[in-house]
Amino acid sequence: MQLDEEHRRKIVNLSVSNKVLYLLKNSGQFGDLQHADDIARTLEMKRKNIDSILSRLCLKGRIERKGSGIYKFPGSDV
After folding, report:
1. Least CB-packed of 3, 21, 37, 40 within 10 Å?
2. What confidence tens digit (pLDDT) does each residue in 18-49 have?
3. φ and ψ of 68, to 5 deg
4. What is the model's pTM?
5. Residue 33 in contact with residue 72, Cβ under 8 Å?
6. Under 8 Å CB-to-CB from 76, ≥6 apart: which residues?
7. Is 75 helix (H, G, I), strand (E, B) or coil?
8. Cα–Cα nearest to 54, from 75, 40, 44
9. Is 70 helix (H, G, I), strand (E, B) or coil?
10. For residue 53, what are the CA distances in angstroms to 6, 15, 64, 77?
């Protein structure tokens, strides 16, 4: 998963949680299901930090966990 310059400009001022939501919400461009490793690599963050954010987003019902380390935005067709 790579962010082009346009997407980087869109997310530069977002919180990390909102960056994760952006990636998952725009999953058609980045792949439908997102693996935590890919999210961490794309955002250039440590996996353990991404895991914490993903866990909190799941508890709040903002994203869905589909398997070990695999997430999607609610309402997407996967």
Report:
1. 37
2. 999 998 888 666 557 899 999 999 999 999 99
3. -65, 110
4. 0.83
5. yes
6. 24, 27, 32
7. coil
8. 40
9. strand
10. 24, 11, 13, 23
Query: Alpha-carbon distance 64 to 13, whole Å?
Result: 24
Within 8 A by CB and 6+ apart from 74, the residues are: 61, 62, 63, 64
- Looking at residue 20, its amino acid is V
d(CA 18, CA 31): 18
Element (H, E) at 71: strand 70-72
- Longest CA–CA span in the chain (Å) reads 31
Instruction: Map residue 34 onto helix, strand or coil.
Output: strand
Beta carbons of 53 and 72 less than 8 angstroms apart: no
